[in-house]
Amino acid sequence: MFPTGIAIHPIPNGDIVLNSGVAPVTLFSRNGNFKHVIKGSPSKTDDIAITPSNQYIIPGQTGTNEFHIYDSQGILISTTSTFDINNQPSTPRSVTVDSTGRIIAGLGWYGHKTVSIHQPDGTLISKYETTSSPRFITCMPDDKLVISFDDNTLQVMDQSGHNARLIMLIKPPPGIQSWQPGYVCCSKQGELFVGNWGSHNKAVYRYSRKGGKYTFLDCITMMENIPGGIALSADEQELFVVHYWAHLVKIFR
Fold first, then answer.
1. 97-134, pLDDT tens digit by residue?
2. For the chain, what are the domain ranges?
3. Across the beta sheet with 145-149, what order do the strands follow?
4. 64 φ, ψ (degrees, to nearest 5)
5. pLDDT tens column, 150-196
6. Whole-angstrom distance between the N-terminal and C-terminal Cα of the chain?
7. 82 contacts 125 by C-beta, under 8 angstroms
8. Distance of CA 2 to the CA centre of its chain
9. What CATH number labels 3-169+225-252?
10. Which phi and psi (to 5°) does residue 127 adopt?
């Protein structure tokens, strides 16, 4: 099905949710068995998020300025239109949800440079301009944002007000020849997993958070495959990584 993004349901079922470049969002059991498709969900999207109340947040298909909220049964609840800092229509490239259920969308397609923050029902709270186009975005345990950008930087930012503050730049691991951070994922303990798309260093890199800084720990080499979506199981004992272009998901302990 050519998977791109991934999200994992909480315990007890731990279902795997995949979106795709060619097909609607599809659910699989924890063992990888097909369960069902979310009917009417958009294809050609790169990301997906699950809220604390088990709703699905799915970006609109590329070229549409919207994201969709589906309930836990896969029924469409609402559609929210998204606009960049200049109020121009802008497609969400990435979505995430913080601990309170607020929806954060990275509007980074076609040179747009905006992060928009929404109530759980989709109502806009605020938006702010970024220095580069956001690729992918995730929330830390304290609800700060980790964002990968098209200028190949990885930044930690707050999400308050109309002018979010840059907290830190996360440096690439030592010795990296080509650093192009893509999908990002954060554990409840603050460990960060970053998929690198660089031509010479395709891998998922793990960072620990100590004393307000991120320190590189180790990596999972992907060989010829670009790492796509990254997600942790609810108990955080397993890491799920989409192998972009390879039509599969690998699980690491």
1. 999 999 999 999 989 999 999 999 999 999 999 999 99
2. 3-169+225-252
3. 134-139, 145-149, 154-157, 166-169
4. -110, 140
5. 999 999 998 876 667 788 899 999 888 899 999 999 999 999 999 99
6. 24
7. no
8. 17
9. 2.120.10.30
10. -150, 155
